Amino acid sequence: MNPRLSQMLCLVLFSLVTTAAFSQQDFSADLVNNAEKASSTPAKIYASKDKMRFEGHEQNGHTGTLIINFAAQTTDILVPDRKMYVESAMGRGPGAQRSFNFFRAADAENACDEWQKMATKPGGTCHKIGPEVVNGRSTVKYQGTSAEGDVTYVWIDPKLRFPVKWQGKNSGGELRNIQEEAQPASLFVVPADYQKLDMGNMGMPGTPRPH
Q: What is the pLDDT of residues 186-198, one digit of tens each?
């Protein structure tokens, strides 16, 4: 996986796992990494009810795409240059179901309950700081502290029910140029001419490998 896509996925997972919110409003936006040494080229996010798409762009013109289907609990990583994709399950069992419900928290005004349910270790805390405007949008600001003492701030947009800004000790990001509009269904499906890459068989003799 190329470095830009890796950075994009880290931002995505960070924003989702630390916020207890999921969009119920279709929108698109630029996903900007606020780290000091981050690339100036933003990624792109598209959200449509129970599906999301992230696109990262390299300076050399290459792209990497991630599609998350929360209903099917699957993720697909697309490699457009090779017309290939890798699909993986988000998980199974009670723990996975709790994670799935976590993404669909119903109330942006009371996100701490879901955040604390999903904490990987006991001992963390969360509290709502209050309303704050971010890039012209009304948000609810939260502070979360992990069991190790690391503090993270997250700003959730009640209308989108999605984080529009997040800031931790060493990383952060925000959504800019938010456009609230219906997103084409084609954004959230793997193109028919893409070949599925079975990562489990990559090391098996005779298994085709991408070139």
A: 999 999 999 998 7
